[in-house]
Specification:
Elements (H helix, E strand, L loop, with lengths): L4 H9 L4 H9 L2 E2 L8 E14 L25 E13 L8 E9 L1 H5 L6 E2 L15 E12 L6 E9 L19 H4 L4 E10 L4 E9 L20 E10 L11 E10 L16 E12 L5 E13 L11 E13 L4 E13 L9 E11 L5 E12 L20 E12 L1
Antiparallel strand pairs: 1-2, 2-3, 2-18, 3-4, 4-6, 5-6, 6-7, 7-8, 8-9, 9-10, 10-11, 11-12, 12-13, 13-14, 14-15, 15-16, 16-17, 17-18
Length: about 425
């Protein structure tokens, strides 16, 4: 399995378990194809979770759970198959004109709850609460990998569907330090269809830039009024990655990543309000770092995400833009080869972006213990606490108004098992 550069940066300093990534690489098996070095890999992700407190839904219909990706009422107080991921990969060799490919499919309930994968095939994409639907299948990634000889390292290209270039966490479940996703991940785009170029200037500095369609940058940005995309309705992206050299002492391997993704999805005249909406799209800003410490077993990280939603200017009205921002702190303590402890602290600020329920700010703390009991199996026990500031946003009581949340706090206890092959 070929991982994105952000995940490799995390693995380099241990925030994401090196053992987990290594197991995935070691177990690659050759597939009988025209190319003998094509490999097959993937994972099966399952979990059981208990949402503490009052019931999370009224008669199993209405619920108020925290709004992070891959969560929701359908997973509350139950056993879950989260995702099945299968990848075929032919990596590039070291030649100046090297070529390869990567094809990765995701199936299972998580596909239904994270629609900004944007490349979904299947049945009902907006299931009602507790509705039984046929599993969906998404093209996680499917790109041709090429290299052109420029300078010493060359330029590496991805043409097709590829993971986003921003973010501290990955869409690949085993590569995250926690079971539940962060709010930072939840407001980011996850995938693009287009072309991406990466140039490694030296061992410390690399650059990426690309252009993609705007119709699948995320759940917010879609072609308007059913019209096809125009040449101006594209997503443009760029990022810079810095890695500390060996001479940096205990800071060796520390990474700093910065990226911007801007998506424009066209113009619309008139509309339901009768006004003129001049622009529509989003701009995502990201800064993230992973840092070793003088304590060799302890690594820390930080991330900042800002999403600017360009709702546009209505004739006779004002600027209707909305936004969301997330600050996140991470820590990893590797007790031994099998046992590690991971923690995450976040603050989400929502300015009419719709990521919170009646609250402008949400804080969350996640504590995860990871232990390897079985070969190739990632085992986690996790506790998560979400706190909605000022406004009750969670749970539902049989004695409250239908749909009215009753608590400021949401608690989750989960067991996560992932088999990697």
């Amino acid at each position: 399995m070929k991982f994105n550069k952000w995940t490799l940066g995390l693995a380099a300093v241990g925030v994401v378990s090196l053992a987990s990534a290594a197991r995935a690489d070691e177990k690659l098996s050759q597939v009988q194809t025209a190319l003998s070095n094509t490999t097959l890999s993937g994972y099966v992700d399952t979990s059981a979770q208990w949402n503490l407190g009052s019931q999370n839904g009224l008669y199993g219909v209405i619920g108020n759970t925290p709004g992070y990706a891959y969560g929701g009422i359908n997973k509350a107080d139950g056993f879950n198959l989260n995702a099945i991921d299968i990848a075929l990969d032919k990596p590039q060799d070291e030649g100046p004109w090297a070529a390869g490919y990567h094809v990765e499919l995701m199936a299972g309930p998580d596909v239904q709850t994270k629609l900004n994968l944007g490349t979904i095939a299947g049945f009902n994409t907006t299931p009602a609460v507790n509705q039984v639907t046929a599993p969906l299948v998404a093209i996680r990634q499917a790109y041709v990998a090429l290299r052109t000889p420029v300078a010493n390292s060359g330029i590496d290209w991805k043409v097709g569907v590829f993971d986003t270039i921003v973010g501290y966490e990955s869409t690949s479940d085993p590569l995250n330090p926690n079971f539940t996703r962060s709010y930072g991940y939840s407001i980011e785009p996850t995938t693009h269809t287009g072309i991406l170029a990466t140039f490694k200037a030296n061992d410390m500095l690399s650059f990426s830039a690309g252009v993609a369609d705007s119709s699948n940058v995320g759940t917010i940005v879609q072609p308007i009024d059913g019209r096809s995309q125009q040449e101006s309705q594209k997503t443009y992206m760029g990022s810079i990655a810095f890695t500390a050299p060996d001479s940096a002492g205990f800071m060796k391997g520390a990474t700093l990543n910065m990226g911007i993704i801007n998506s424009v999805s066209g113009d619309r005249l008139g509309g339901l309000t009768g006004g003129t909406l001049s622009t529509f799209g989003t701009t995502s800003y990201y800064v993230g770092a992973t840092i070793p410490t003088p304590i060799s077993a302890l690594k820390v990280g930080a991330a900042f995400d800002y999403l600017d939603i360009h709702n546009g200017h209505l004739a006779g009205g004002g600027n209707t833009d909305s936004s969301a921002s997330v600050w996140g702190l991470y820590a990893n303590f590797q007790a031994n080869d099998k046992l590690s402890f991971n923690s995450r602290l976040e603050r989400l600020t929502d300015n009419n972006a719709g990521f919170t329920t009646g609250s402008a700010a949400v804080d969350e703390i996640t504590l995860t213990t990871q232990y390897q009991l079985w070969a190739n199996v990632l085992s986690r026990v996790e506790f998560r606490w979400d706190h909605s500031e000022g406004t009750k946003a969670y749970d539902q009581s049989a004695y409250s108004l239908i749909g009215a949340p009753v608590h400021n706090n949401a608690y989750l206890l989960a067991l996560n098992l992932i088999y990697q092959f």
